[in-house]
Amino acid sequence: MDDGLHALDIVFFAVVAVFLILRLRSVLGRRTGTEKPPAQWNRGPAEPNAADNVVDLGRARKTVEDAQPAPAPSAGPVGRGEAAIRARDPNFTTQTFLSGARMAFEMIVSAYAVGDKKALRPLLADQVYKPFCDAIDDRARAGEEMTTEVMGIISAEMIEAVLVGSVAQVTVRFVSEQINVIKDLDGKIVDGDPSRIAKVTDEWTFSRDTRSNNPNWQLSATRAVSEGDAEDRSEDGA
Fold this sequence. Notes:
Layout: H1 2-28, H2 57-67, H3 76-88, H4 94-114, H5 117-120, H6 126-141, E1 145-164, E2 167-183, E3 189-192, E4 198-209, E5 218-225, H7 227-235
Antiparallel strand pairs: 1-2, 2-3, 2-4, 4-5
């Protein structure tokens, strides 16, 4: 009799196990190896209303950046000039402008050294482009070759910002480390030292008509500055 009860217990538990298996399959489904990932992991342009709990990292990053406070405006005349330019061009920011100015500085210095007028043309205003070209032509006639390597820009500081009519003018003082060498036709060095890194200070003015749809700035004036002169101007609050 005990054997009969034991057999019934086995049958009962087997029935319960089969029932649980069937229930689990109905809830979890059967994996075939061809399942697609959840919609929120594979949302494409044709699924704009897919799961709302997906975070667009690009959009989130932009939102965070937009939420960051803008850099405090400079004090004195520079600050007033920045504010005036920003009033005409809401996209103008000191940080973005200086970042672009650094890139323009290296591009212009490099293009001038190799005599690439085509590269210089869109970067320079007419009043600067002509003397640059004249200097390149003089160098070519003399059979001289110039090599310039910008080792690094130590600093790029906005020292003047004004709005003249609709034209924004921003002057930046660049302090850079460069190796400059000029060689003659025979390859003899006539100026500079390839083993010497020189500290060079330049003040460049960039201009842009705020009424223009073209967002690019052009170099409109240049000035080489001695180290002592730069220090004097800094002390005067320039």
